[in-house]
Amino acid sequence: MTPGHHPGALHPAKGAGGPPLVLLHGFLGTPAAWEAVLDAMPDHGAAWCPWLPGHGPAAPHPGSFEATAAWIAESLPAGAILAGYSLGARLALGAALHRPGAARATVLLGGHVGLSDPAERAQRAELDAARASTLKRDLEAFVDAWEALPLFASQHRLPAETLAKQRSARLAHDPDRLAWAFEVAGLAHMPDYRAAIAATCRPLCFLTGARDTRFSALAAAVVRPPFVTHGIVADAGHNLLLEAPAAVAAALGPWMETQ
């Protein structure tokens, strides 16, 4: 997943520079989802924003969650700061734990830590199979249902043009490729990383919106300073890239000073 060998957007270093950044978008997202964050940072190192598998022009592989996390980990430049949102956060967490030390720090926006209950995992597998089927059959209907999820209710306060731009990007995806996100990288396929998080000695920085109570509770349950921390963004929901890019930039900013 490196520039020149994988589709994505490469942003040059800015201001005083800093460590290289690898920034992963979420499900239905695009590399452009990180542009507002980078615009809000006065200084940053070169930033690589790859397409996640199955999104945009990216092929729908590797064929497992663990292989994808390993692929990301092996492609990180030395001293990189790795960050991801939602699906991107889950993959970033897997990459950080697959190869400890590959990333100087990992910043996780609205990131899950994996399901611990086998029954809940089975239920999620059924749900994701149904979602993949709907997605392949009618992308627009799927996006309608996705945007109506209570998880994204806080986005209703955003300007209409912002939501229209997001919807347009979502509808540009190939639904058959996009199903990779459920069939390979869905939450049911993600390992339960709680034990690995409890043992890590590398910085894992969870960031969640105050209105995103479900993911805030998940992050709060694994906090273990100084290695595992959790910040909360006031009056924001799940998608911090869309709702609070300046807060994400502020969370990444201190890591730009540690080159």
Automatic annotation (TrEMBL):
Does the UniProt entry include the keyword Lyase?
yes
The record ties this protein, via InterPro entries, to: AB_hydrolase_1, AB_hydrolase_fold
Q: Which domain of life is it from?
A: Bacteria
A Pfam family cross-referenced in the UniProt record is: Abhydrolase_6
Task: Keywords in alphabetical order, please.
Answer: Lyase
- What molecular functions are annotated in GO for this chain? lyase activity
- Ranges for domain AB hydrolase-1 come to 21-251
What the entry lists under PANTHER family is as follows:
2-SUCCINYL-5-ENOLPYRUVYL-6-HYDROXY-3-CYCLOHEXENE-1-CARBOXYLATE SYNTHASE, PROTEIN PHYLLO, CHLOROPLASTIC
Protein name per its UniProtKB record: 2-succinyl-6-hydroxy-2,4-cyclohexadiene-1-carboxylate synthase
- The organism is Blastochloris viridis (Rhodopseudomonas viridis)
